[in-house]
Amino acid sequence: MKSFLADFLYLFYPKRCIVCGRVVHPTVDLCEDCEKELKPITVKTCQKCGNPKKLCCCKRYVYHFRGISSPYLNEGSAQKAVYFYKFGGNKDSAQFFGKVMAERFINDFPDIEIDCVTAVPRNRKKRADKDNTLWRFDHSARLAKCVARELSVPYKPLLIKHKSNKVQHLLSGKERFQNVKGVYKAEQNNFVNVLLIDDIKTTGATLDECSRMLMLAGTENVYCATAVISA
Ligand SMILES: [Zn+2]
Ligand SMILES: [Zn+2]
Predict the structure, then answer these.
(1) What average pLDDT does range 106-120 have in this prediction?
(2) Which ligand has the shortest distance to the CA of 35?
């Protein structure tokens, strides 16, 4: 019965490739062409900055978070999928990335027991847990919820953005760290290991500031996971 219903729904709402939108088989997330351009990071990565070892940026930046893990570099199909997810809000994309991010994290940090998953908040004065409407949807919160489900731990909106700031990607590396200072607040807590989720890591300035605030609020260790990493 369940399968009949799924087939019936598929007729009207066929599953689409999360990169190009082409209709795909209900059991896959990407069409064959886009799948070929999806290149998971297979080389050894630096656990502190998340980059492949030869692109390690630890000399430039010292982070508050203990470690970071990402399944893909910000290129090819992964880059396109993140872009379309951010602006289209496709739930299939969130589930896809949530699953691979969780798998990657377990693989990179097998001994770390995560107490809860949280997200970098997107919108000022709004906790990172509401994703009801398309234009107001919080892409990091939705990703974080999917990662939490995969890891079987709770999702907690611990952070809030209480000040507006400039758009990060228009700024230089140093400016990005200054631009996020004092922009976030964290709820008091006593978690040992919190996993902080965002869609992309570039300089890591936002993740670092959010980690700092979580630690000031009582979290012992912060780990990060992003869908893609810009090395
Ligand atoms: Zn495709
Ligand atoms: Zn490094």
Answers:
(1) 97
(2) 1
Q: In angstroms, what is the span from residue 68 Cα to ligand 2's centroid? A: 10
pLDDT of residue 40: 93
Q: If you measure from the C-alpha of residue 110 to the centroid of ligand 2, how many angstroms do you get, rounded to a whole number?
A: 19
Among candidate residues 42, 54, 38, the one with its CA nearest the CA of residue 93: 38
Mean pLDDT score, 77-104: 92
| Centre of ligand 2 from the C-alpha of residue 81, in Å | 25
Give the pTM: 0.90
Domains in the chain: ranges and CATH: 1-34 (no CATH), 37-229 (3.40.50.2020)
